[in-house]
Amino acid sequence: MSIIPINDEWTYRRPSGPFAAFDGGPEVLGTARLPHDALRDEERTPDAPARGAGAYYPSAAYTYTRTLDVPEAWEGRTVQLEVQGAYRRAQVFLNDELAGVRADGYTRFFVDLTPFLRYGTANDLRIEVRSGEDSRWYSGAGLHRPVILHVDEPVRIVADGVRIVTERIEDDQAVVSVVTSVVNETRATRTVRVHTGVADASGIPVEQESTPLTLAPGEQADARQVLYIADPALWGPDSPALYTAAVALDDEEPVLTSFGIRTVTVDPRKGLRINGEEVLMRGACIHHDNGPLGGAAIGRAEERRIELLKEAGFNAIRAAHNPLSPAMLDACDRLGMLVMDEAFDMWTRFKTPYDYAADFPTWWEADLEALVAKDRNHPSVIMYSIGNEIVEVGTPHGARWARRLADKVRALDPTRPVTNGVNALLAVIDEMPRIVEELGGLNALMADKNAMATVGATDTATARIEESSAAVDVLGLNYAEKRYAQDRQAFPHRVLVGSETFGPEIGRLWPMVKDSPNVIGDFTWTGWDYLGEVGIGSTMYQGDDKASGKLEREFPYLTAWCADIDLTGHRRPLSYYREIVFGLRTEPYIAVRRPEFHGVEILNPSMWAWSDSVSSWTWHGYEGRPATVEVYADADEVALELDGTEIARAAVGTDKPMLAVLETTYRPGTLVAIAYRDGAETGRTSLATAGEALLTASADATRLVDDDDALSYVAIELRDAAGALVTDADREVTVEVTGAAVLAGMCSANPSTVEHFDASTWRTFDGRALAVVRPAGTGAATVTVTAEGFAPVVIDLTVVDAGCDDVPLTVQGLEPVDLALEAASRA
């Protein structure tokens, strides 16, 4: 068995037909190292077909090509191409022959190249992708996840053929089953031995087994092994212990599989339990894009997002609304992030003109099989979701689909519960005129800040979703928290999760979750800012020339701007408010609404929008003018002091729980917020007016491995000599990368800009910008950050050969079972 990443040396171009040669050949756009999103660098325009939903990017199609050197030694072997994600409607050609297709842009799939190979020469590999008006958010377009070549012997462990399940956990041991699927593609009966070795996180072998398996010609069969691991370290969100299983046939190179020992149960009285201990999911919905990298799922980008979400207090993510990349699931396993693993955003009814609904009847079963096969060994995946806001769940045949999908998932993996993110309002959208009248008319409903939840809690909604809800183990509710208490009474055996909720309402929602044993968590929309659905969380002021009166904003809006964490990975004020509500932070937090908009009317306020505030007391030019200060605190009162003198005091909870709003006048100095409960101080925090700005830059990694996953994130900030962020002195900064690395992308957090992610110059936003550097060879690399009027900042990087970290997985003189153990210990 050989696994060969083929992520370098790709060329991408516009697609071309058979007569392109008459016009001088197709237009070549560039070369790429995968993962790659070609759409990211296209020109955004106000009249793009998908408009704000797609971040004003055009519809596009691309052809990716590279050569494969196929040695004569491969003859007689099976050669498969693993495509972890190609957006979208991918067609794979080898030597100009169609070898495979896939409709969904996020599904990992395998293509058998064997019938089309030419041995002893270079082969031409081509993958066509296309997208446009097929998604409600920015999807990107390209080979946005890795591509891997598998070269296997005729008798082999099949792809995704190792399945590991925790059967039970006892006081002194864990019982783990390992099922290995083996295929014999020879014309003779073969008997092989399946050797399995398991090592713990320190590389110490802990268990082993060897089993014979006889296969007739063309037969596929399973070897079932039961292992007993003494005194196991259990996987959980606070202690993500991992083991590695190495499974080999005879003396072949083993298949390595990381896994965790843990159990998952749900019930309406004891909630979600992991290893028997109750866990409430502090969840974040996240889209797949990586900001300045577009849709490219580069390993370090995926890992960094999970790191920062975890640091911000989340312990769970919901894949919105498609299967996650293997790289992100690996990061969730390592870091202890729970995953709601979602399959589809639509079933049979279209949400956009050319979306997956046209492909669903043909591909749904294969795509569910691919999802489960890819993810079932990841301990972080604790729940499968079969859909999001599926319109037809309120119909009899929609309920049939729900049951069909849920049963399919259970047949593939009975160890995890199944959910479905239901928007009850959408389920009754066809009856809205009657429902509106029953609720007192349109004006009464529009005056209801929580109208979506009100409609979702009506008797009509209850009746319409009852059958489809009974098909799943956990009912996901999108914006329907009024059902929590109602369903506890009406459906005492129903387990609920807030699968999508308004982020700014967490102060009201989290106590409801804690007080409802039938509700196992809350997933905010969203944890991380994303491209597309532009401006749904923005503040629309009177006089704003981009105010359209619609939920999405006009060009050049780029991001949704509704998240706890912005596009650069910086936590916004809402994130700190949530951390206090979760009970994870005792120190108060100060945010200041932008004083230039003090007193200006807000148009069409969005339920996804937090206040237009920044954690800053630096507002040059606004001295003596009114300022609104927010203080977040688990307290009943807060006081504001400026340079030691009290300037305001207010009760907490008047506007929102754990939030005080104070009016004052801006004057430079040190602003201190003091929190009180029953008259006693419980905590304090401060903001100081920043001095003269200095240009600073820092990299999160200065030693990189020259592989497909490596990145260095360079934070560019304007700070004074004391380290305070200067938020009101924004200017253009330029990044130059020389040597063995390239600038992979650059951005700020600005939700509305015409700047390009592939540009080397960006204007800071609230004092900050971000550059992403990717290795491109080995040796020294230099990142130089400049801005007019500042001394340049230089960061030195070192890029080493990926092969330096490679360790052979075979050792001379060891028996096959010891080889498996050796491989597991080195993983």
UniProtKB/TrEMBL annotation:
One annotated GO molecular function: hydrolase activity
Record's keyword annotation contains Hydrolase: yes
Segments forming domain Glycoside hydrolase family: 695-793
Protein keywords: Glycosidase, Hydrolase
UniProt entry tagged with the keyword Hydrolase: yes
Domain Beta-mannosidase-like galactose-binding: start-end pairs: 59-131
Protein origin, superkingdom: Bacteria
Name of the protein: Glycoside hydrolase family 2 TIM barrel-domain containing protein
Organism: Demequina litoralis
